[in-house]
Amino acid sequence: MPDDADAVAPVHGRGERVTEEATRARGDSQQAPPRARRTPRQASNARERARIAKRRELAAHIRAIELHEQAAALQDRLGHADRAANARQHADHARELHERALEEQAALEAYPAPDGLHRAG
Questions:
Q1: What pTM value is reported for the model?
Q2: Residues 90-102: b if buried by 16+ CB within 10 A, e if exposed
Q3: 97 contacts 60 by C-beta, under 8 angstroms
Q4: Residue 51: CB atoms within 10 Å
C-alpha cells in the first residue's frame, strides 16, 4: 500500500501543470500578431474562438484551485504544515489568475460584434 506522500505527489503535480498550461496559454495568446485586415466573418470566428479559449482557461484555474486546496488539506492531515502552506499559496495564485481571466473575459464580451453579424453569447 503506498504511503500518503505517494498519494499527494500526483495530485499536487497535476494542479501545477494545469496552472502552468493556463499561464502558457495566456502568454501565447498575448504574443500572437494581429492580422492587418480581417473580414467581418473571420473577426467574428476569432472572437468566438477567443471566448471558448477564455472559458477553458477559467475552468482550468478553478480546477487548479480545487486541486491545490485538496493538496493543502491532505498535507495538513499528514502534519506537513509547510507543504500545506505552499499548496495554499499555489491556490491563491490560481485565484489571482482566475480573477485576471474574468476581467479579460468581461473586456472580451464588451467588444462589439461587427454590424450585421450575430454575436454568440
A1: 0.59
A2: bbebbeebbeebe
A3: no
A4: 17
